[in-house]
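This protein record is not my work; I was only asked to verify it. Where you disagree with what is written, explain briefly why. This is what I was given:
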Amino acid sequence: MLLDYNNIGDEGVKYLSNAIGINSPTLVELSYNNIGEKGAKYLSKALQINTSILELHLDGNKIGNEGAKYLAIALQINSCLQVLKLPYNNIGTEGAKHLSEALVKNSSLVDLNLQGNKIKNEGMKYISEALQINNSLQI
């Protein structure tokens, strides 16, 4: 499912998440769609029940720390997602901490892209500690 550059925002993701929860796409591309923390919350709920999505691309949205927290909750439950792309989403240290906590428990994710965020040194420390425990994520 390729929906990049459609400016669907949080409201559009709400409708899409309902469909994702019951359908079986393996790839969902939602890059550059003005998706914020509410949209991340909808996606998180869908990921908690969907067992077919292998890749989720969310490049260039506005997920932020709170949205990263919602996605981290899904990562702790979902055991099929292999690729999560979150570049340029204004994720900072707090978001990196949430994602790191999920990485400790998740064993399906092999590719996590956090390029162009605001993770800084402290956030990198959290991620580094999680990578010492997580054996599935490829560096």
Notes: The first strand starts at residue 27 and ends at 29. The chain has one domain: 9-131. The domain at 9-131 is CATH 3.80.10.10 (Leucine-rich repeat, LRR (right-handed beta-alpha superhelix)). The two ends are 26 Å apart (CA to CA).
